[in-house]
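Q: Entry one of two.
A:
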Amino acid sequence: MGHTTTKAPLDSLNNTEASIINDLEIQVLVLKHQLARKDAENKEQLARTHKETAELQQRVKHLQGKRQTANQNFAKCMKNYNVLKCEMEKKVPRKDIETSISCPVCFEPTQDAVIIRFCGHTFCEGCLTEWLSIKKECPTCRVAVINAPAPNYAAREVKKLLDTIYID
């Protein structure tokens, strides 16, 4: 009729079965030890990751603050620049300065300004060279030009300054 099976005590196992069970128990213990070690390593790694994340978040927050400060400083500088530029233009309009250093031949601000040494008049180098190829006299006062014109560094620097200050 019905068979009932009962588990045999370990003592009744043969040597092979006992050896297999013993090996399996050892493997289970080794695996539990490895699992515990991996679990500890993972917890350490997680703690390091959390710490690094917190440090990075702090760094980002710090940099965002610096960026905001830099943007505010830049805005202040631009406001000051615009105020100063307007004040300068009110005091001495660019057109007035350009007129004072304009070439009497082309009526534009001088390009590579040169000066006639004898009379002191200033012209664009190209305009004066072309003029002197036709007539050897100053286009403004008609004095004879004997020596080669000299670079007018002062007029050149004023033009550079104008180009720097007055940004269109």
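Q: Entry two of two.
A:
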Amino acid sequence: MQHELVPSGADRRIVPDAEESDLDRQVLDELIARRSASKVLHGAVTRREQLARLNVVDKRGGVRLAGLLATGHYPQQFFPRLLVDVTTHPGREKSATGTALRFLDRAECVGMLADVVEDAVNAVVRNLRTYSTVDGATRHDVPEIPVAVIREAIANAVLHREYSPIFLGQPVSVDVFSDRVEVTNPGGLWGGKTTDNLDDGTSRCRNQVLLPLMQHVSPRGQSGFTVEGQGGGVRSMFTEMEAHALDRPLFTASADQVKVTLRRHGAEIPEHRAWLRALADRELSPTKTPHY
């Protein structure tokens, strides 16, 4: 296991048997185009030189793990468990083996990481309560947990998880319970980060090759990027949850994993009802129930 103050370097490793043909050419073209105006590609003339400069491949054309995860057609061909496993449970705890109903929904989100994050966010949102408001002729469906918070939690998990060989068989796990959502990633906190200073606004990432790639690769069919890498993500999660009358995210960490818990609340909580009234710009009836 890597020392908590030493960069992992695992994302720089060359993936045996992986070739440039395993990478999505359109994604690579868009990545190169986005980076062409910066100094990072200065003097890199050939495509091989450009991809090597971006750390997608090495100078001999070997595909780096970060390059495969960020731009690969199907990275799970080489690492079947590098995915996000979203499971929705019927109650507040995982059901015991042999129970008739062990889970309500399950999605194993695969592909390049930007798509994995987006698919995982959608899998969570479809299993949350949704509150509907009407603005004129337009109806707005608002999930009980802000989508931006869910996305940040899952993106952080795939970006900051440990990718050294001992952890390659472990996915990022997202568990949706009746009262909370838990996002768990392999590998403990890194770079002097603790659960007490995660929201201090400083950016530290154990996967220093993967981060700049994820900052410039969009989910397919979208224009935004999965991560910003500016260190303000956790603080924005706190702000968003508080703005929606929800508890702050709870971070817990051990030597080999980090978990963030996002609490769900019902409309019966006074502060939450006040938020809903402001959202709808009208009084909710005492018997009004969320739209599912």
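A: Comment on entry two: Strands lie at 84-88, 105-109, 130-135, 138-143, 172-176, 180-186, 250-253, 257-263. Residues 10-280 form a domain with the Heat Shock Protein 90 fold (CATH 3.30.565.60).
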